[in-house]
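Appendix B. Raw example, untouched.
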Amino acid sequence: MAINREPVLDVPGAKRRQKIYIACEEVNMIWSENEVSDFQKLWKEGRSIQQIAAHFKRDPDEIGLLVIDQARKGHIKTQSEPTGKGQSHKVIATVEKVKKETPTVISIHGTKGGLRVERLILHGKAPSVNHMYRNARVGRRQMKVLSPEARKWYDDTVIQANVWRNKNKWSTATGKVVVRLWFYFPDRRKRDTHNALKALLDALEDACIYQNDQYALPQVMDFEVDRKNPRIEIEFEHVAG
């Protein structure tokens, strides 16, 4: 954009001044302390700039500027996630401020067309193993089948995963798929994150995330308590080869 170089002040004996141009004047750079704290948490979880922008319902450029601000102050660091048990970490985003006189550098890795595929979010909580199955007699055989509660959760999961797949243009995987999971529980009661894993992977197969759940490589990344919004968040990644 061209800068208007007409003087705005002409005082005798003073140097001629030019009109001031304020970069990104239309961008909202005001954040509350709670919002900054939420941003730091989302960044630590590995959320992309687009996902954080959607969370706050703000322009991604505003998030990018906040990333620079927080990196300059040393409040956020490089995003990374484990590639597997006993393995190294895969870098998602690099934030680097080497010296005061050098610019802050942000590099986003593992993107698809410049954007990371958004997470599949399953609201609510999965039934525990005790509530997942019930005994039933089929002919002369006694076997375990999904309880009504579990069946409803299973069917809802298939529907939500199908909607996510169509929205994100995810092609059904014919090979290995990394399935990263974040669990948000409604309370601090002790729970096993692997309780509903088999049923969840089966539901994702029925939703055509992959052809067969034998190709699913589940990784439980973390678990926390969110009393207001219990959920399971899932990321998928095709394994090359």
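End of appendix B.
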